[in-house]
Design a protein that fits this description.
single chain; 330 residues; alpha+beta; eight-stranded mixed sheet; four-stranded antiparallel sheet
């Protein structure tokens, strides 16, 4: 693998599904064009995200994530994505980023299965200082749900399944939107004295795989940093930001569902200007799509091969467990 391919999804669905399948057999990343997301909706969300991170810290802290919660504002160093990778035993340092996690904007009508499902469908808190944030992000969230459903239909075709195969397995999933801000070096050096200094190997986002079915990422044009690990060469490959394109990658749950026919690939965010007097701020917006909380994820019939590699898991507890492992105790 030398490049992350760009796939135009506004074509014959069967052909697109086949191309996605061929791509995901070697790397869990690609970019898409022809997605149909309205530019005004995406731009409004992007600008609202930038406005949130430009708020004074005390305003952002009014919606800070509380201990044990999954949503809200995550200050600098409060998360270490590398800790979410199972079996590494690595106590990685906190990531050099801040984020705002947005919970699903609609709640299921069924009774919650347990406290964990209730936590995944928590009510969002919105900063009073930025009244335009909620409508902008909810409109974008809706578009991301629609695009995810379209992609899952294409996934089904690529896997030799009916296009509607996943529909009833993802209709009340605990998907989430995340706003990310990677401050420039000057801002990192100006962190509060209580914050630990940068540690060896500390990144803007440590090496990790995503947790659920798929991720849809909008990157900032002209800002590098996202890298994908190529197991064949053992190298980290940059993923360029392309105008009007989204980066798509699958998560651990989809890799399990496909019996590793498709790869959930390690990725990270570096600071290409690290050590320089001035480095660039970077912004991104990933949408994390997930299956229904009580959906049993077992090897798909078209992926069984020589036998299932994994025991079945419930989608919701799988998601929540990996999310909680990434939290840093401050």
């Amino acid at each position: 693998m030398t490049i992350i391919p760009i796939i135009d999804i506004d074509r014959d669905p069967a052909a697109v599904g086949h191309e996605i399948d061929e791509t995901l057999r070697s790397v869990g990343f690609f970019q898409i064009s022809g997605h149909g997301v309205p530019a005004d909706v995406a731009d409004a969300a992007w600008e609202a995200a930038r406005a949130f991170f430009d708020l004074p810290l005390d305003e952002k802290l009014t919606v800070e994530r509380q201990p044990g919660d999954l949503y809200g504002y995550f200050p600098m160093l409060s998360e270490s994505l590398a800790r979410s990778v199972e079996g590494t035993g690595v106590a990685a340092p906190g990531d050099l980023k801040e984020s705002l996690n947005i919970a699903p904007i609609t709640r299921p009508t069924h009774p919650m299965a347990d406290e964990t499902e209730a936590a995944l469908f928590a009510t969002n808190a919105w900063p009073a200082a930025l009244p335009g944030l909620r409508p902008a992000l909810e409109a974008y969230f809706t578009e991301m749900v629609l695009l995810s459903e379209r992609l899952m239909s294409l996934f089904a075709l690529g896997l030799g399944l009916p296009p509607e195969f996943f529909a009833d397995k993802i209709d009340v999933g605990a998907s989430a939107l995340r706003l990310l801000d990677y401050p420039p070096g000057a801002r990192l050096r100006a962190r509060p004295a209580s914050a630990a200094p940068s540690q060896p190997g500390q990144l803007r986002a440590g090496a990790h795989t995503d947790y659920g079915t798929l991720t849809i990422l909008r990157q900032e044009l002209g800002r590098s940093g996202l890298e994908v690990f190529d197991e064949t060469s053992g190298e980290w490959l940059g993923v360029p930001a392309i105008e009007d394109a989204y980066v798509i990658n699958i998560g651990d749950l989809m890799a399990r569902w496909t019996n590793d026919r498709w790869m959930s690939t390690l990725h990270r965010v570096t600071d290409p200007d690290a050590g320089a007097d001035v480095s660039q701020r970077r912004q991104s917006m990933p949408f994390f799509h997930n299956a229904n909380y009580s959906q049993l994820v077992a090897c798909l019939p078209t992926c069984i091969g020589d036998g299932a590699k994994y025991e079945p898991v419930l989608a919701g507890p799988h998601l929540a467990g990996k999310t909680m492992r990434s939290a840093v105790t401050m």
